[in-house]
Amino acid sequence: MSYCSKAYKEPSAPKIVTSAIPGPESVKQIAELDKNFDARPVYFMCDYENSVGNYLADVDGNVYLDVYAQIASIALGYNNPDLIEAAKSPEMIRALVERPALGNFPGKDFNGILEKVLKLAPKGQSQVWSALSGADANEQAFKAAFVYYRAKERGGFEVKHSEDELTSVMENQAPGAPELAVLSFKKAFHGRLFASGSCTRSKPVHKLDFPAFKWPQAEYPYYKYPLAENEDYNKKEDERCLEIVENLIKTWPSTKGAKVAALIIEPIQSEGGDNHASPYFLQQLRDLTTKHNVVYIIDEVQTGLGATGSLWCHEQANITPPPDLVTFSKKFQSAGYWFHDEKFVPQLAYSIFNTWCGNPASMIIAGAIGEVIQREDLISQVNRVGDYLMAKLNKLAEKYPQHLGRLRGKGTFIAFDLESTETRDKLLKTLKLNGCNTGGCASASVRLRPTLTFEEKHADIFVEALEKSLAVL
């Protein structure tokens, strides 16, 4: 059975019944939670049973238009009927109850589950390796890049590891543990584990007190908006950053044998402030990585699966040849990396491995999400609604230029800047009191991350709430 997401029995508008958020019941439950779990980052306690479509309910009876969607990770809205049906399937029961160790003991239904996932692969990618989260996807992609890079250095993928490599690696020494690096960008966010954390540069709190690899960071372009009026400036900004990238690849560091083996970039730096990379910049990075034998990794954890107006954001740049690895998670409800060159399959079978090798339950949901996106042509809807929302926001920016700066976006993946962190945080609180839940990024930006089922009627409600909130700043 299939459904249409527009058939959701959504509320017609948000409903706020408490004078403060979190409300009294949320405050009580947060205090209980905090006895056993660090509840300091909690916004409010959610009532998911009574959340529907684009509306998120809390335990106080407040109902918000959710323009944040679980930090950009809900594709179709709450209590989607297609996903509920997928959750009731025999395949899901087996995936949850047995939780197979996929690398050793995949079930007979796994090929079918995987085929649905592969239908959503970016252009030019044909294979997938699964992971447990976005950070894990990036960590696994780094390992794949390093193994690939070292195999090429040894002179081929059939060349066996030397005895020196096998013994030195057990001491965490070269040549078995080579001094290779992943080049990332300032303000990037690639996860909170150790290798991914070493590539994350968005906020100190993500890295503070943790040991890190001493890996290089380049400058990410920072454009002037509107783009059409600032082409010359932005092209020079691209060239400036590209020169820094190539110089780092050539010179990092001075230590003998140390090399940049991979480069990772978000097509839009999301946590770092919704900074966009132009198609030209992304293509030139492909050219540089090819020239210098560096593995090119695109991080689509937050930008992937439709919100930017294409299934995968980097597809809009038509990068040729395709990136070597593309990581994913969030809206896909699954995680891992795409690739197309079979040489990225490690030479040794257990080189990239863990007990579960991903999660078939998540993959079942991912496949169902993909079917809904295609059936309902949600990518077209995202582009239509994105244009509609941007037009309204542009008018609001003319009225409140002091509060709504650098308006930018692709599809419904939209952001704007306030003049300070304090003002931005005040706006986010006021928006909640006016019935809209959204989030911040960088020091003073607001990011909109609605679901793919977000429509013009939702955009109208958000813009009205935003204008009311701006008026009292």
UniProtKB/TrEMBL annotation:
CDD domains noted in UniProt: OAT_like
Pfam family, one: Aminotran_3
Keywords: Aminotransferase, Pyridoxal phosphate, Transferase
InterPro entries: 4NH2But_aminotransferase_euk (IPR004631), Aminotrans_3 (IPR005814), Aminotrans_3_PPA_site (IPR049704), PyrdxlP-dep_Trfase (IPR015424), PyrdxlP-dep_Trfase_major (IPR015421), PyrdxlP-dep_Trfase_small (IPR015422)
Signal peptide annotation: none
Keyword Iron found: no
EC primary class: transferase
Xref: NCBIfam families: GABAtrns_euk
Protein name (record): 4-aminobutyrate aminotransferase
Natural source organism: Hanseniaspora valbyensis NRRL Y-1626
